[in-house]
Amino acid sequence: xxARITGTVTSPRFLPGIATPPGHASPVHSTARPADPxxxxxxxxxxxxxxxxxxxxxxxxxxxxxxxxFASTLxxxxxxxxxxxxxxxxxxxxxxxxxxxxxPWYRDVHGHWAEGYIRVLWEEGVADGYVARSPIPGLxxxxxxxxxxxxxxxxxxxxxxxxxxxxxxxxPAAGHLFADVPRDYCEYDDKPAAGYIEGARxxxxxxxxxxxxxxxxxxxxxxxxxxxxxxGLDLGEWADRLTAADIDDALGKFRDRIGIAAExxxxxxxxxxxxxxxxxxxxxxxxxRMLSRAEAATxxxxxxxxxxxxxxDPFSPDGDGIDETTHIRVITSRNRNVRxxxxxxxxxxxxxxxxxxxxxxxxxxxxxGPGGPVAPAGPGDPHxxxxxxxxxxxxxxxxxxxxxxMIRARVFDRYGQPxxxxxxxxxxxxxxLEARLVPPLALAGQRVAVLATTTGGATDVVASPPWGTxxxxxxxxxxxxxxGGPALEGWPTLVAPAAWRGELELPAxxxxxxxxxxVTAAFAGxxxxxxxxxxxxxxxxxxxxxxxxxxxxxxxxxxxxxxxPAADGVTARLPDGLEVxxxxxxxxxxxxxxxSDVPGGRAEGACWRLTxxxxxxxxxxxxxxxxxxxxxxxxxRLVLGLGVIGSDxxxxxxxxxxx
Length: 659
What we know:
- By secondary structure, the protein is of the alpha+beta class.
- The protein has 9 helices and 29 strands.
- The chain starts with 51 loop residues before the first helix and ends with a strand.
């Protein structure tokens, strides 16, 4: 009835490795046949009831695993904004500008070429997108945000982006807004933007369309964005300083340069020279192309992550105590993460025909962080680069020449990632004035020229004689007198020497004496003055003598004449009728040619000299030597008598006649 079984059989109620309950035999059947199966039936084994903890543990493990997986997926799709990047609206706490909500991460920029730029702007609380928020309370992070990187950027979106990137305070609701921008105007569906648009307008970042319209929904061309960035970087004045040659040099390489609007040419040329924008491979710059949101974010990133300000610009370290130093400041959007920084000053441009800085040569270096002085600690920004004072000297302490220098800055964050600021030009000028009077010795009623040379971009030069009103001087390269003031155009005029000319008319009743004539040059924020001396005489004076007198035939005779210092020249008509110009002798030294427009004679008069020989065979007697002094249209004549003696030694009578 029972088959023979060998080996062991494991009871299905117990698994290997689990001990048999005490008092129970192992469920292994022997080969012996039981006498009474009913009597020897084994009792049911002991069954342990599972506890609540044993039943809950597997479920909790499965739930925890699912929660971790869900959280990891959520963090990838909706990364948290860094704590230090929490955004607060710029401006005063007293403004009634609504708080600007922080966006979740944008899901539509994954793998986009501008993802890295947009990510940094998002971390800084600058970038904005469109957010579909979750209706479930407490699940705000489940909101879906998109950036729409390939969509055209509008004027309203650009104004908000630039205002926040350049830390422009939004104008409160009480401000004067555009007619098409109501006070409750919003961008990105629900974000108040009217205050930022008005603030961007006040800062010069955007311009109105017409008188009272802004057109916030209108797309923006590339050249408009470039002009806004140049204004935001405080480089608008430098764009105005560019010369026509600078503009042609920067834009001449682009085939479509004719398409750049006239009002954007200077800003576009400066942006090209500073490499804010670059051309396309087909040698075009595409100024009228509508910019996408990704391109606008990229340009903003390049210009705003680290930017340089410097004031005053220009500055003049010339020892007068005015604008002796310029203060350089590096402003970054990652101040709390800046660990080190490097600022260099290198040569860029020199005026043609003048000595100036050499392009590309580094003259001054400032460092901070590892390898340099650490910036002083500040509230919340312990590693922000401090303002740097530059006094126009190189690292060795030597003064630098006037010209245009380029300031470059690089900052490093806590991960060692560098951020390069847009380089900033800086103009170093030397204010100077030199002047002279031609002639410095004059007669009453005469005209005297005032010649001046300035450096440093003088706007006006004025001579102020004590006997009348101030007389303006005009640039010598213009037709004199020029009816308008001198026009300074381009940065070279602020560096290269400039020549000026004016005329003073002495009154006919001016008393003889020494007068002081101040000449003043006006510069931006300062002046320079030199004081000139003018000697005034009442009338043209002529006096003279002959020696030896009398003289024998064949003997040399010298004529000396003294005149008023302003005399143009003196001639002598000799006894034989020949008229000869006398040589200007200056202060009475050896005779020489009068080659200068400025007489160098003594204050009491000018000296003239001539030597001639009495012709052999001249009969004894009296002969006339006529001297004539000239000044402009006036003449004064003097007749000297020369006595010629014969071999008997008799002398003739000498007479002197004068008009």
